[in-house]
Amino acid sequence: MKTKIKSVLETSSVTTFEDVCFMYQVPELKKEQKKLKPDAVAEVKYKGDHTGRLVIEAYGDLFSAIAANMLSDESPSLHKKKDALGEIANIICGNVVASLGRSEKGYKIGSPRSLKKEEWLKEKKTDKPFAEISLNFNEGRVDIKFFVDGEISVKEKKIDKSSDC
Amino acid sequence: MALNILVVDDSSVMRSIIIKTLKMTDLPLGDIWEAKNGQEGLRLLHEKWIDLALVDIHMPVMDGEEMIRHLRENQQYENLPVIVVSSESDPNKIEMMLRQGAMFIHKPFKPETLREVVIDMTGVNYEDKD
Hints:
The complex is a heterodimer. Chain A is of the alpha+beta class. Chain A has one domain: Chemotaxis protein chec. Helices cover 43% and strands 22% of the residues of chain A. In chain A, strands 1, 2, 3, 4, 5 and 6 form a 6-stranded antiparallel sheet that branches. In chain A, helix 1 (2-21) crosses helix 3. Chain A is globular, with a radius of gyration of 16 Å. By secondary structure, chain B is of the alpha/beta class. In chain B, strands 2-1-3-4-5 form a 5-stranded parallel sheet, sandwiched between helices. Chain A binds chain B through residues 12, 15-16, 18-20, 67, 70-72, 80, 83-84, 86-87, 90-91, 93-95, 97-98, 102-103, 106-109, and chain B through 11-14, 16-17, 20, 58, 86-93, 106-110.
């Protein structure tokens, strides 16, 4: 299940960056772009048979580049930059929750929100993601983490297994 | 024939992306109107001449499902081409939209996908641009 979610997380993230931001991965980052702290973090919560959240962390100049590319605006406002990062999180989350198995009630994806530095640091210390990936771009790096609250139930695993057949 | 299009999404960023993608399709576009929920969308439909609506599902005040239901109950709009643009993955919800005569585009999407669906729904194409 973990491998499947990681694979869906990676595929949907790459496709989202390509189709929505017109940004394509590069194999490695330049040395000066390897920053330790993210410039911005956005979070989207989901609710259904499982609950959890998706967190996206933008490093280097990527935070600005995402909004600039999405909106064709050379100097987007901070508000627009945050909205753009949140939308990316929202789209990726919508694609990943589908791979958790069919939810009777369907999954409800919440509105994206920006995380403050202290919130991000606190969550980073306490929570371990179910799946995470990193993507490198010319402008910087993005880390995307998918969290599932509790454990994925045996019932869900069975549904998932039968749907694979 | 240039298409007058209504884009309904609560995210201004998403509306901008949809409009940007529409412009990349090379389809004949007329006026493009924006609304941030279904209620605003319905109001604009009453006020403007609109040929096609691109609608998100999850929105505050009035969501996409309710907006489409209102459209289908109104003789004036029962045949209005509607494309639902969403990252929704619930097959039941998608099926419900299709039953209402709407088409569905999953986010993220390429300009070519949007172009094909718009042509399917409206019958316009590049030759109509002039």
